[in-house]
Amino acid sequence: MKHTMLDCYGANEHQLDNMKLISQLMTEVVYALELNPICPVSIIPYYYGKVKEDIGISAYILLKGGHITIHTFPIRECYFVDCYSVDDFDEKKLYNFFKEELPFIEKKSKFNTTMRLSGCFNTLKYNPSIDFGPHLMAEIDCNLDINMDTLFEFLEKTSFDINMDPITRAAVMKSSVVNPKYLSGIIVIAQSHIALHYEYSTKKVFFDIFSCMPFDYNIVNEVINSMGNVLSNELIPRGTKHIYKVKSEVEKDELLANTKWQKIVSEK
Length: 268
Known about the structure:
Layout: E1 2-9, H1 13-16, H2 19-32, E2 42-46, E3 56-63, E4 66-73, E5 78-85, H3 91-101, E6 110-114, E7 133-142, H4 148-161, E8 171-174, E9 182-189, E10 192-199, E11 204-210, H5 217-225, E12 228-238, H6 252-266
Antiparallel strand pairs: 1-5, 1-6, 2-3, 3-4, 4-5, 7-11, 7-12, 8-9, 9-10, 10-11
C-alpha cells in the first residue's frame, strides 16, 4: 500500500476556486493512475469559515480500500492532495498530472510518499507556528466489531472529541455490493479530513487524519488505542513552506447560519 501527499504552492487562484474543474480533475486522476473508485467524486464548498483565507473547495473519491482527497485554498494560492491506495500506483504520474492540470511552483511545493509499513512509528516534529497542519497515519489490529453503523458513529464522534470543525456528515460505504473486501468512511473537517478503511479479512483499520490546525495527540492516541493493537503510527507535518496571511473573520450571521447544524448534531 502507498500513501502520497502533495503540498502545492503558487497555484492559480481562479482554478482553485472552480468547482467544475476540481471535480473533473479528481475524476480524471483516478483513471490516470488506474485505481479503483467505489463512488463518484464528492465536492464540498467551504465559504463560511472563521478564517477568510481558509475558504476553498474540498473534494474526495473513496477507492477500494483507499481515497483521494484535495483541499484548495484560493486566497492562499495553494492546495493539498492526499492519495492512499492498497493497490500500487505511480506517484510520479500523480505529481505530473497535477503539475500539468493545476500548475504550481515546484521549488515552493512538497512531495512525500510513505509505504505505510507495519512496525513504523515515525513521528516527525510538528511546529504549529510554521507548519500548516499535522497528518497522522496509523494501522490498527482492530478488536472491535466494525460495521457501517459503528464506523459512521466513530467518525462523527472523533471529529468532536479532538475538537475539529466538521463541514460534512460522515460518509461510509462498502467496496462492493456483494462480498466487499473493505469498508471505508470519511468525514471532511475544515479543509481537511478524517478517513478510515477497514479490511474485513484481516480486521485491520487504516486510520488517516489530516488537519489544518493542531490537535491534541494524547486524545488522538487514546482514540486509536481504543480500537485495538496499534501496528504503526506515523506523523508528517504538512505545508512546511506555507506563508500565513493576516486572518480575518467572515460576517457573524453567515457563520452562525452555516454552522448551526454542527451544534444540533453534537448536543448530548
